[in-house]
């Protein structure tokens, strides 16, 4: 089995489409995992993924790089808190937000804390999605080690978490403001009617064609005047074509109809 055959088998068996991922990066990461497991060929590795749940989860973790923390890149979250969300709250009585590729839930829960501080009792709903079912279970539990809260102020730790044997547990009532579900950005239908989409540090894993398709669908999902929040090292090159305008570093606004 060659690498193309491996990708087809993974798609057919696990419903994971690897065609949109950057080839060189995907080959390197898969090869590293095979070496780590002492596997010499793609067919044997595919068989391992089918029978060994730990090997499959390792593959998913390596594929999606489930590394995040609360208020990752604090400067950008400060912009979200001081400029973007106040603007949206001034224009909308109910905010619909999508945290795409949400990983362990730290990102959508960070947004919950901001909204609860900005406008206690405000009406909003956050959809949080990821391709990895296991990491979504972590997000739903909302239990985190102290190192993931290094950017959370003492006041917010006290207000939004309880401690349990050295871990921090996010507020049970506020967890209900977030709905978690599996979603593949490359193949599944997109949520529509959104005021804010957060999808950060994800584009780097995809081909340029896949990036363009994802950004186009994000734009179509946004309400006029809604915002797309991406990683600080990411850029949308064809934003005019997508009816997006760059307003701030990492923030693109859907152009309103004239």
Weakly predicted, low-confidence segments: none
Distance between the termini: 54 Å
CATH fold field value of the largest domain: Rossmann fold
At the first level of CATH, what is the class of the largest domain?
Answer: Alpha Beta
**CATH architecture of the largest domain, please?**
3-Layer(aba) Sandwich
Assembly level: single chain
Mean pLDDT: 92
Number of helices: 10
Q: How many domain modules?
A: 2
Notable characteristics:
258 residues, 10 helices, 3-stranded antiparallel sheet, 10 strands, 7-stranded mixed sheet, alpha/beta
Structure report:
With 258 residues, the protein is an alpha/beta fold. The chain has 2 domains: 3-64, no CATH class; 74-254, 3-Layer(aba) Sandwich (Rossmann fold), CATH 3.40.50. It contains 10 helices and 10 strands. The chain has a 7-stranded mixed sheet. A 3-stranded antiparallel sheet has the order 3-5-4.
Describe the structure concisely.
The chain has helices at about 5-15, 25-35, 40-50, 55-65, 75-90, 105-120, 135-140, 155-160, 170-175, 210-220, and strands at about 95-100, 125-130, 145, 160-165, 165-170, 180, 195-200, 220-230, 245-250, 250-255. By secondary structure, the protein is α/β, with parallel strands linked by helices. It is globular.
């Amino acid at each position: 089995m060659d690498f193309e055959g491996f990708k087809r088998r993974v798609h057919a068996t696990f419903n994971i489409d690897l065609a949109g991922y950057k080839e060189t990066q995907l080959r390197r990461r898969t090869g590293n995992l095979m070496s780590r497991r002492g596997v010499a060929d793609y067919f044997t590795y595919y068989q391992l993924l089918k029978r060994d749940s730990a090997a499959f989860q390792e593959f998913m973790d390596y594929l999606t790089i489930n590394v995040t923390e609360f208020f990752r890149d604090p400067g950008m979250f400060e912009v979200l808190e001081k400029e973007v969300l106040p603007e949206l709250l001034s224009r909308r009585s109910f905010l619909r937000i999508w945290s795409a590729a949400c990983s362990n839930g730290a990102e959508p829960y960070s947004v919950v804390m901001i909204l609860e501080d900005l406008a206690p009792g405000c009406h909003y709903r956050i959809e949080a999605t990821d391709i990895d079912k296991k990491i979504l279970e972590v997000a739903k539990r909302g239990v985190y080690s102290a190192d993931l809260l290094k950017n959370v102020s003492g006041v917010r730790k006290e207000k939004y978490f309880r401690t349990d044997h050295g871990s921090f547990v996010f507020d049970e009532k506020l967890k209900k403001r977030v709905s978690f579900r599996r979603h593949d950005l490359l193949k599944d239908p997109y949520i529509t009617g959104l005021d804010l989409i957060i999808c950060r540090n994800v584009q780097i894993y995809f081909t340029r064609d896949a990036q363009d398709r994802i950004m186009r669908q994000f734009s179509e999902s946004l309400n006029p005047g809604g915002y797309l929040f991406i990683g600080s090292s990411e850029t949308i090159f064809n934003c005019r074509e997508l009816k997006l305008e760059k307003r701030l570093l990492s923030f693109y606004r859907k152009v309103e109809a004239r």
